[in-house]
Amino acid sequence: MKKKIELFVTGLVLAGVGAVANTGTLTAYQSQPHTITIIDKDMKTQYETREVYLDEFLDANDIELSDHDLIYPSLDTELKDGMRITIQRWNPEVEIILNGKSETIQTQEYMVADLLRTERIVLKEDDEINVALNEIIKDGMEIEINTYETGKKIVETPVPFATEIHNTSSLPDGVSRVVSEGKEGTKRQVVEVVYFGGEVKEEILVSTEIIEQPEPKIINKGIHVEHVYVPEPVHVTKHVYVPEPVYEPKHVYVPSPTHQVNPTVNWNGKPYEYTKKLTMEATAYTHQPGDRWYNQTASGMPTFVGMVAVDRDQIPLGTKLYVEDYGIAIAGDVGGAIDWNDIDLYFNSPSEVYDFGRQHKDVYILKDQSIDVQALRGA
Predict the structure, then answer these.
(1) Of 5, 17, 19, 111, which is the most buried if we count CB atoms within 10 A?
(2) CB of 271 closer than 8 Å to CB of 364
């Protein structure tokens, strides 16, 4: 609304024209403040403003909109007194069911693939998801993901003991006496478990070891012994000529001691000694600006190509490694889905992560643990 203001002017001289108006009326307009209501996230706020258009009002009051937020009426609408303006923020609620475990979150991501990257969920070749990765997220969307995971479990079972019966004449005939009660042993089995969707798909026996031998139960049993007379043997002595032995020296070859050399792997034309070799199931991950864990690791180091995540019960944090087809690396991060024989390799881009998928790789624990991996990898 504009307020009309009339100014009465006497003797107004128009410069450059020379005409003089003895009396006259000068008319001007001044904007009146509008009272408008903003409804943003179910919160109502009233404003008084002299701005003319809606986009000017938002700028003047530092009210920001994201690319996916909706506002009604449109930004080029002229403001009117008593106007109600509604903002619908892009913050949909999504239920993620990962291997049977449900979690409801709110997100500002626009597509399913972006949401999975933010939540650090990496899909492998045989994993299943009920929506397309390029599908636009909707409020109330349910995303169900079933993945293949592997883990190990240790099963300990008793080993039965044997019973030994020893016949003895020190006891009356038919009388038995327990000398030792016996004790069960313990057998330990390492089993690799394959899960799909959080449920056991397959169990594979990896190794069996008797960690405690059973002790037998020993019973002495009395028996009757008959005494039989055996005459003493008659000894006849014969003299036999035995020549003196002739001693000939023998030359015995004693090999010179050798220095044990650790086996090596080669990377960038340089050999690296290693002390242990593991075959592990390798996956890949990455960070992008805006991710919850961007450039953060469990060791406090930044992420770079050469940073790998491990199960710290299998490989302690800080261990220097060589990973087949990946290079020198450091065990500097962990992950909720990483268990025992898993290793997660850091890459710079999501495309490299998806291309890598899941592979079996040989991992070598290096003898030289003083290597500066971050400097070596140029990070």
Answers:
(1) 111
(2) no
pLDDT of residue 294: 82
pLDDT of 6-35, one tens digit each? 444 444 433 333 344 444 444 444 568 889
* Right CATH for 152-222 from 3.40.50.300, 2.20.230.10, 3.90.230.10, 2.102.10.10: 2.20.230.10
Q: What is the tally of helices (H) and strands (E) in the chain? A: 4, 23
Distance CA 366, CA 36 (A): 69
Task: Output Rg (C-alpha) for the chain, integer angstroms.
Answer: 43
Q: Which residues contact 251 (CB under 8 A, 6 or more apart)?
A: none
CATH superfamily of 34-88: Beta-grasp domain (3.10.20.30)
Domain 93-146 part of CATH 3.30.70: no
Tokens 């069960």, residue located: 184
* Candidate ranges 149-153, 237-241, 247-251, 364-368; pick with highest mean pLDDT: 364-368
Give the rounded distance of the alpha carbon of 58 from its chain centre. 42
In the three-class reduction of DSSP (H, G, I as helix; E, B as strand; rest coil), residue 165 is classed as strand
The residue whose two tokens read 């290793």 is: 343
Cα 33 to Cα 55, 73, 210, distances in angstroms: 16, 19, 88
**Model pTM?**
0.37
